[in-house]
Design brief:
This protein is mostly helical and 334 residues long. 69% of the residues lie in helices and 4% in strands.
């Protein structure tokens, strides 16, 4: 006689539904805590902390799309979680422009909801729970929304109307000194820290050394005539540079400081002609292009971490995999 197996999971004759309201509340509270932490980090900075909490929120969204069955509840949970993120950030950094800030939050919410909806459809159309397919669907879509929001915040932070986009010291180390090193190949004696007036005199001397008037070279001229000629050439060169740069130069300041002022005046002038929304769009597009090159790697890594948490929660009985009357697996909260 063959004994009946008693360890098979029960077959549910009811549609997908979550039975445990307390567990749903725990999910909502946990998501709100992560969102608040990310909002706090975005307000005060810290690239590593922002990256970790952002990854944590994406992982949570993928788990939430499996544990919460009703799309209306998912929409409500996402609204509360993303509103918590926005509220926390705005509380600590209320200087953010409301128009741009609101657009960033709205895009993030809509894309996260669309991604969660895609995750639910993946789950509902599979006979077995394919966690990685669901997680990658939710993570990839939500990541785009999060990058759009973070790009909007970044555009506000680096806009010249709000603060310097690069410090003088950083400009000197990364721009002025390399340029001076290249110029020394052709004009020995040039240095980024020398006074701008001395810099012009070096160029004037370089030009004068090749000058001849008839059979008389520059070095054969009287010393007073040489000095007068060099001052005249340096003055004309300064006027030409000011005319090209459309900025006043300070002969007593360093070459690096004058170059910084020229670049700032031209670059800031260009950026300030761009509306804030246009500038935000450029920054968001650049960030998306940069990050989407590595998106496939991030999707797999975050999905793998989410799968680890999913296995732990199933093991400890937070949820269980059950069979429906259509012989399809589903994750149920009881």
């Amino acid at each position: 006689m063959i004994e009946a197996q008693t360890n098979l999971p029960p077959v549910s004759n009811e549609p997908e539904v979550d039975y445990s309201i307390p567990k749903l509340i725990v999910i909502l509270l946990f998501g709100s805590v992560i969102s608040a932490g990310l909002g706090y980090s975005l307000a005060f900075g810290g690239l590593l902390r922002i990256a970790l909490l952002g990854a944590g929120l994406l992982i949570f969204f993928s788990l939430q799309s499996l544990f919460v069955k009703d799309l209306g509840r998912i929409a409500l949970f996402l609204f509360i979680e993303i509103a918590t993120l926005a509220g926390t950030m705005f509380y600590f950094k209320a200087a953010e422009p409301l128009e741009i800030f609101g657009i960033g939050i709205a895009v993030f919410y809509l894309l996260a909801l669309w991604a969660s909806r895609g995750g639910r459809k993946e789950s509902e159309s599979s006979l077995k729970v394919n966690f990685f397919r669901v997680a990658r669907t939710v993570v990839s879509g939500s990541m785009i929304g999060l990058l759009v929001f973070e790009g909007v915040i970044l555009s506000v932070a680096i806009h010249p109307a709000n603060q310097e986009w690069i410090s003088r010291k950083s400009f000197e180390n990364n721009v002025s000194r390399p340029l001076a090193a290249m110029m020394r190949i052709f004009v020995p004696g040039v240095d980024a820290n020398m006074e701008f007036g001395d810099f012009l005199m070096v160029f004037a001397e370089k030009n004068a050394s090749r000058m001849t008037v008839g059979d008389v070279g520059f070095e054969d001229l009287p010393e007073e005539t040489q000095e007068q000629y060099l001052r005249t050439v340096a003055s004309e060169l300064e006027k030409a540079i000011e005319g090209f740069a459309k900025a006043d130069l300070n002969p007593n300041a360093s070459v690096s400081d004058n170059l910084y002022d020229i670049v700032r005046s031209r670059f800031d002038g260009f950026l300030e002609t761009l509306p804030s929304l246009t500038f935000a769009g450029i920054v968001v597009a650049a960030l998306l292009l940069l990050m989407q090159s590595f998106a496939w790697l991030f999707n797999w890594i975050l999905a793998a971490v989410a799968w680890m948490f999913y296995g732990i929660l199933i093991f400890f009985g937070f949820a269980r995999v059950s069979l429906e009357n259509r012989s399809r697996e589903t994750v149920i909260l009881r």
